[in-house]
Every structure is written in structure tokens, then in C-alpha cells.
Automatic annotation (TrEMBL):
Lineage top rank: taxon: Bacteria
Record keywords, A-Z: Hydrolase, Protease, Signal
UniProt signal peptide: 1-27
Domain PDZ: 297-390
Keyword flag Hydrolase: yes
Name used for this protein in its record: Serine protease HhoA
Length: 397
């Protein structure tokens, strides 16, 4: 797993870019002196008018057509197909004075997004719009509209926006591909707005698959990430990672860098995960997760020791055991105190879910994330040295 300090999200915050155009002046060589005429011996010099260059008829010069390589043509096609579906997302935060309640200076941010449908839903990262007071979306034709958050999830870093109902754009949704059949080495394109430079296309390959990144939530991780060397920089967040068919295969989310800019190691959320969660975000405004009722697990050599269960949760109702509180009394002088102690030996050790071994908290969360409320699962635990299967029905959270 990558160290958290190297995972840099790609939302640009208060970035002002200045491009310096460098003009190279070519110094002209001084014209060569004309050659001195050599007089012919004993030969008269005929006098005839000298024809100037301006008087000579000139032949039209036709430039040879530029021959584009197949790779260049493929790049151009990807850009022309996908760019009309990519947007520039800008945000601002209005902060209020804690005493007087009047607006004071806030912050600004920028990122990218992709058009999901003709109803005006826009896909981007949660961290692009997190805490934003005002959100604007700018299309490739420079038309800008206000947008609001329809749904968002911090853990998976996915958000869905919707542009204002009065927008009259002819929206062109991004073409969604697949991420379950990707192969390391295939061509990849990142399209977005790095440093506010809208419509920027960079090319590379898929460098690796199934990488893990630290999540923005607690100690959780984001598994299954796509790694690419297509250049990403602040402002690329929320933009698409594309294949040669101009289909979105991932959503740009972070880079690994110690300086906060491209180092050739970028990451994207697989599009299959995006397609799975977007309908929930549009319908419910959040991702509804399966709820198991296990509050705390300890990783041990014997398995995942269940430290704490939620009261009346699915796990407790199914009969799983966590730490139990034992009471004893202790006399100190003339006063008797009641002392609570944790009985750790009474806890179950989780070793498998539906027959799949689990050895870490990360593996446990990954299996649970694949389930939905109402699913029946079987937890295999070690209790008093014996292996025991405990079925339970997952709730919702």
C-alpha cells in the first residue's frame, strides 16, 4: 500500500498559471556582395537591360501535405470524440465570520468532470467539490453553468453533479467502457484541465492494475486502482482516463509525488466501480452500504479478533461474540470499588466469509463492499478452539 503522504489528489486549489511565449528571432546574414564583372579582352560589352527578380515570372509553390502517422491519427480521434464530453469544474468556498456572521474571504478550487447523460449529470471526484459553496461547470464550447451536488461519497471519492435546469446545451455523454478486461501496456489517455488548462490531452500506457491507495476516510484503502504514466497534474481530478476507442476506463483521482505534480505515476478509479455506484448517488444522494454490525477488529495470527459489536446489530443478533465486560470488586482500605475488565478470551476470531479466507481488515472491508443490504453471508469463526459457521443477514447503513 502506498504511503499516504505520497498520494496527492489532483484538484487544483488557487492555482494561477502564466505561460511565457518565447519568440526566437533569427538574425539575417548580411547579403553577399555581388561578384565584380570581369571584362573580356578586346571584346565589346553589349548593353542590355537587366531583368530584376521582381520581373521574373514565379511558379506557385505547393507545400507537400503533412502525413500523419497512424498513432497520431488515433490520438486525434480520441481527442475529438471525447473532448466534447469533458468539462472544467470550478468551485469556491464562502467562509463566514465566527462572531459577526458576515462573509469573509474563502478559497477556490478546480478540477475536471465528464458528462454522464443528456439530463445534465456530471461525474467528478468528491474531493473536487468537498465543502464547496458554489460550483460551476464549463463545457468545451466555453459555456458555463451553475451546478449542484446530487450525490457524493468521500470513501470512494465519487461525486455526481447536475447543471442548472435552464441550461440549453446539447450534451454529449462520455462513452463508458469496461475496466475488467484491461491489460498492462495498453494505450491510455488522460483528458482534463491540469492547472486550469482546459481540454488538455496526455498519452501513456497502463503501467499496472489493482493498486491500493489510502482512502480519505480513516484507515481504509481504495483497492483496484489503475496506474498509468499518462501525465496527470492538479486539475485533472475527476477527468476521464480513456482507451484508444475514446471510451472512459477510469476516473483520474491522484498521483504519487513528493512535489505535488506529475512524476509519471498517476491513478484512476476503475470505470466499473463508477458505473456501480453512480445510480445510487443519483437516486439516494449517497452510497447505501451493507451493514454487518462489527465495530472493531484486531488483526492477529489466529484471525481477525472481534473486539466490539454494535448493540442489536446483525452480527450480535446472529450470535457473534466480541470482548465481554467482566466485573470484579476490589477493596481499598474501607472502600469497595467495582472494577470493569475486558475479557478478550471470549471473543470470536473471524477467519473466513463465505468460504473466502480473511487475514486483514482491508480484505474484510473489500468483501463487505461487494455485498448489498439484505445479502445472507456466512462468517466462519474460531471459538474455544473450534471452527464455527455463523450465518447472518446484512442490514443497511
Amino acid at each position: 500500500m502506498l504511503k499516504p503522504r505520497f498520494a496527492v489528489s489532483l484538484a487544483a486549489v488557487s492555482v494561477a498559471g502564466l505561460l511565457a511565449a518565447v519568440t526566437i528571432a533569427l538574425a539575417q546574414r548580411p547579403a553577399a556582395d555581388p561578384l565584380s564583372p570581369r571584362p573580356a579582352a578586346q571584346r565589346p560589352i553589349s548593353q542590355r537591360p537587366v531583368e530584376s527578380l521582381a520581373q521574373r515570372p514565379t511558379e506557385p509553390v505547393t507545400a507537400a501535405p503533412v502525413q500523419l502517422t497512424p498513432e497520431e491519427l488515433a490520438n486525434i480521434r480520441v481527442y475529438e470524440v471525447a473532448n466534447q464530453s469533458v468539462v472544467h469544474v470550478t468551485t469556491s468556498v464562502v467562509q463566514y465570520h465566527p462572531v459577526f456572521g458576515v462573509p469573509i474571504e474563502g478559497g477556490e478550487g478546480a478540477g475536471s468532470g465528464a458528462i454522464l447523460d443528456r439530463e445534465g449529470h456530471i461525474l467528478t471526484n468528491h474531493h473536487v467539490i468537498d465543502d464547496a459553496t458554489n460550483i460551476k461547470v464549463t463545457f468545451s464550447n466555453d459555456h458555463t453553468y451553475d451546478a449542484e451536488v446530487v450525490g457524493s461519497d468521500e470513501e470512494f471519492d465519487i461525486a455526481v453533479l447536475k447543471i442548472s435546469p435552464d441550461a440549453t446545451e446539447k450534451l454529449v455523454p462520455i462513452q463508458l467502457g469496461r475496466s475488467d478486461n484491461l491489460r498492462v501496456g495498453q494505450k491510455a489517455y488522460a483528458l482534463g484541465n491540469p492547472f486550469g488548462l482546459d481540454g488538455t490531452l496526455t498519452t501513456g500506457i497502463l503501467s499496472s492494475l489493482n493498486r491500493s491507495l489510502p482512502s480519505r476516510v480513516d484507515a481504509r484503502v481504495m483497492d483496484g486502482m489503475i496506474q498509468t504514466d499518462a501525465a496527470m497534474n492538479p486539475g485533472n481530478s475527476g477527468g476521464p482516463l480513456l482507451n484508444t476507442a475514446a471510451e472512459m476506463i477510469g476516473m483520474c483521482v491522484a498521483i504519487r509525488s513528493s512535489v505535488g505534480q506529475n512524476s509519471g505515476v498517476g491513478f484512476a478509479i476503475p470505470v466499473d466501480r463508477v458505473k456501480h455506484f453512480v445510480p445510487e448517488l443519483i437516486k439516494h444522494g449517497r452510497i447505501i452500504r451493507a451493514y454487518h454490525g462489527i465495530v472493531m477488529l484486531n488483526e492477529t495470527s489466529r484471525g481477525l479478533r472481534i473486539a466490539k459489536l454494535a448493540e442489536d446489530g446483525p452480527a450480535e443478533e446472529a450470535g457473534l461474540r466480541g470482548f465481554r465486560v467482566k466485573q470484579r470488586y476490589e477493596r481499598r482500605g474501607s472502600v469497595v470499588y467495582r472494577v470493569n475488565e475486558l475479557d478478550k478470551e471470549s471473543a470470536d476470531y473471524l477467519v473466513a466469509i463465505d468460504g473466502t479466507a480473511v487475514k486483514s481488515h482491508t480484505e474484510f472491508l473489500a468483501i463487505m463492499d461487494a455485498h448489498k443490504p439484505g445479502d445472507r453471508v456466512v462468517f466462519t469463526v474460531l471459538r474455544d478452539g473450534q471452527r464455527l459457521d455463523v450465518p447472518l443477514v446484512l442490514g443497511s447503513a
